[in-house]
Amino acid sequence: MIWNEVTKTIAHRRSIRKYSPRPVTAEELETILECGLMAPTGSNNQRWFTAAVTDPALLEEVGVLQKKAMLAMPGLPASKLENLKKPDFSPTFGAPLLLIVCKPDGGHDIDACLLGENMVLAAESLGLGTCVLGSVTMALHGEAGKAFLKKLGVPEGHSCVYGIAVGAPAEEPAPTPREKKYAVIG
Ligand SMILES: Cc1cc2nc3c(=O)[nH]c(=O)nc-3n(C[C@H](O)[C@H](O)[C@H](O)COP(=O)(O)O)c2cc1C
User: Among 66, 79, 105, 157, which has the highest number of CB atoms less than 10 A from its own CB?
Assistant: First the structure.
């Protein structure tokens, strides 16, 4: 394994589920968003759109939709259900910034995912934490979700692929295990 600035940034990233209330600066946000746009896309179509949400009222609103979507999940373990019902539970973990990664009708998830990974690693390189949130996908797929995207100014015909919570980390989780799921052929 070769260790350099990039590989160390990749290795150091963890999903962060506890954030300090310090806001993400405008310069940090611009860096993250611009790094997202540097990702590859099929035929350079750039079929993606990111809504960067920092307004506490809008974060609260998406949190309510997330909670509703999570509570409707079949087979939710009792421990998770208990956690969700706590009045202070924040599905975005109190992050001051939520990136909502969208794609237009006919766009590919893969483009949106490459964009997001660039943003996640850019955030990590700035000392910020992130957590990819599938719960945002569930929250924003219904009619209420579509209305919310419209309110954010997401262009017509776009849907949410996933969300990314971003902020200064207030925890240092240990790495989660990885299996060697690759093969070198030849
Ligand atoms: C598609 C996707 C959806 C995820 N959704 C959530 C989520 O809704 N809530 C959450 O706490 N973590 C979520 N995660 C984070 C994963 O749980 C996390 O990446 C995984 O456990 C590995 O841990 P690590 O990111 O710290 O390496 C999601 C990750 C991905 C890629």
Answer: 66
Indicate which atom in ligand 1 lies nearest the CA of residue 14: 26
Q: Does 183 reside within a domain? A: no
Ligand 1 center from residue 117 Cα (angstroms): 12
Give 132 Cα–ligand 1 centroid separation in angstroms.
Answer: 5
Number of domains making up the chain: 1
Helix locations, 26-128, DSSP H:
26-37, 56-71, 78-84, 109-125
pLDDT tens digits, one per residue of 115-136: 999 999 999 999 999 999 999 9
Write out pLDDT tens, residues 85-116.
898 899 999 999 999 999 999 999 999 999 99
Letter for the amino acid at 87? P
